[in-house]
Amino acid sequence: MHERPTPALPAKPPFVVRGRLLTPLDDGGTRFEADGEVGVDSRGRIAWVGIWSERPAASQAEEDAGGPPADEVPIVDLRPWLLLPGMVDLHAHLPQLPNAGLGAGLDLLAWLERYIFPLEEAFDVASARTLAPAAYRAFAHAGTTTAVLYGAVYEPSLDEAFRAAEEHGIRAVIGKVMMDRVTYDDRLARDEILELSLRQSADLCARWHGRDDGRLQYAFTPRFAVSCTAEMLRESARLARETGAYWMTHLSEDRHEGETVRRLFPEAIDYLDVYDRADGLGERSIFAHAIHLSPREIERLRESGSRIAHCPASNLFLASGVMQLARYLDAGLSVGLGSDVAAGPDLSMFAQMRVGAYTQNALRTVQGESRPMLTPLEWLRMGSLDGARVLGIEDVAGSLEIGKDADLIAVDASFTAPLPGIDSDDPAELASRLIFRDHPDMVQAAWVRGRLLPS
Ligand code: GUN
Ligand code: ZN
Asked: What pLDDT, on a 0 to 100 scale, did the predictor assign at position 208?
């Protein structure tokens, strides 16, 4: 089925790749070109994208601007591979990868105690040094070029995670997990842990936020209300505001978790209000899960411009519940997708799209129709451009359009064929097979700013 020898892949910009082009567009809709190309300039930006036969002297323009001679820019023919924007994973846990696929059906809090806290407690520099580069390769292999990652609680392991991301080339938002209510170290008093966690997080932010011209960013990361005091939530949100970094946490993932939060924060109207009272809502705040929400919470999320990382596979894996996605989209919330590895068993964003689509199909059969089903092209948009929008980086990533960074992937769609030789040049059919018949080896290459990512 996959007999064609792998072409020599361009490792760094500038280059031109020819292939079948499939991308969401900023202004809505999708662009498909059966014979298209992406021209990447020497700074790693998309200088031209379009139909191969209409190719302008794009490289000539770059040569005129001081780039390399046009006839020296490598042109690589990747047909019949697809050229897509790199996928955006809005929520994953770096130290948890080794336990991916374990503990299905456990209650969230029991799963954390049994499978996660021991793993994260042991996540030192040595673990990070081994795991982080392998994890970034796995993301690239799955077609993810932007990853939003929770680390463990230890500052040095976060430096290691950032260093590895800097070296690998992936675009990443990373944060040290902050917890002062549930902790690993009972030798320190709670206020000492609070103080230490805030200081270390601020130091990490100072060292890494904005590194490599914004490719690496920092997120202040209080784990969730169950493991944090009101002071930790408030002070971490303040740091995020002051530094311009992100603030991210888990919200309303599981009913039992919700009951615990009600008990711990009796003054709050509901779960979201715990974060609202900490001044944690806003356009730089990313809430993972957010599946058991009242109409008030949905409206408050919208009003505050807060962002949602929808993690459909994780929600089914831990039997947490299902997101009523249509309500969120009707309300105008900004929603992208997250793998939530290791509560989600799979890194692939195509797998998140598939599980998300199945979940919404099932909801419709139970609840009746409210809004038209998302199409495969809309799911593809949610995993790429909508994810970039959640992060506020849609001007640099998320779609293949002129002026954005060349964060793109090449996919061999023959891996998704039901039988050898079956193919399509219909964009909706191509997207449908990428999602419903995705294959772990279908992504052949991933680039960020035109730099080939090790995978
Ligand atoms: N809530 C608090 N911590 C976690 C975590 O590590 N994974 C998931 N899925 N939910 C959480
Ligand atoms: Zn999570």
From this structure: 98
Q: Is pLDDT at 187 greater than 90 in this prediction?
A: no
Helix segments in 211-278, DSSP class H: 211-214, 230-243, 255-264, 271-277
Q: How far, in Å, from the CA of 373 to the mean position of ligand 1?
A: 29
Q: What residues have their beta carbon closer than 5 A to ion ligand 2?
A: 340
Among the bound ligands, name the one nearest to the CA of residue 338.
2
Q: What are phi and psi of 213, to 5 degrees?
A: 55, 35
The full set of domains in the chain, from first to last, is 15-85+398-452 (2.30.40.10), 87-391 (3.20.20.140)
Lowest-pLDDT choice from 162-171, 179-188, 308-317: 179-188
The 3-state DSSP class for residue 46 equals strand
Mean pLDDT on 375-403: 98
Mutation to probe ligand 1, out of 96, 112, 271 (largest number of atoms < 8 A from CB) = 112
Angle of the 376-383 helix axis to the 427-436 helix axis, nearest 10: 70
Phi-psi region of 103 (alpha: psi -120 to 50; beta: other; left: phi over 0): left
How far is ligand 1, taken at its centre, from the CA of residue 224, in Å?
8
**CA-based radius of gyration for the chain:** 22
Which one-letter amino acid corresponds to residue 403?
A: G
Ligand nearest to the CA of 258: 1
Residue bearing the bigger pLDDT, 363 or 69 = 363
Q: Give the span between the Cα atoms of 216 and 165, in whole angstroms.
A: 8
Measured from the Cα of 340, ligand 1's closest atom is 9
Say yes or no to pLDDT of 5 above 70: no
Pocket of ligand 1 (CB under 6 A): 93, 108, 112, 116, 223-224, 250, 253, 314, 340, 343
Ligand 1 center to 149 CA (angstroms): 12
Helix, strand, coil: what percent of the chain each, to 5? 40, 20, 35
Is residue 253's pLDDT more than 60?
Answer: yes
Q: 75 C-alpha vs ligand 2 centroid, how far in Å?
A: 41
Considering only 4-13, 313-322, 387-396, 443-452, which range has the smallest mean pLDDT?
4-13
Q: At what angle do helices 125-142 and 155-168 cross, to 10 degrees?
A: 40
Report how far ligand 1's centroid is from the alpha carbon of 93 (Å). 8
Indicate the pTM of the whole model. 0.97
Res. 368 pLDDT band, cuts 50 70 90: confident
Residue identifier of the C-alpha nearest atom 7 of ligand 1: 343
* Residue whose CA lies nearest to ligand 1 atom number 9: 343
92-108: average pLDDT? 97
- CA separation for the pair 452, 191 (Å, rounded): 45
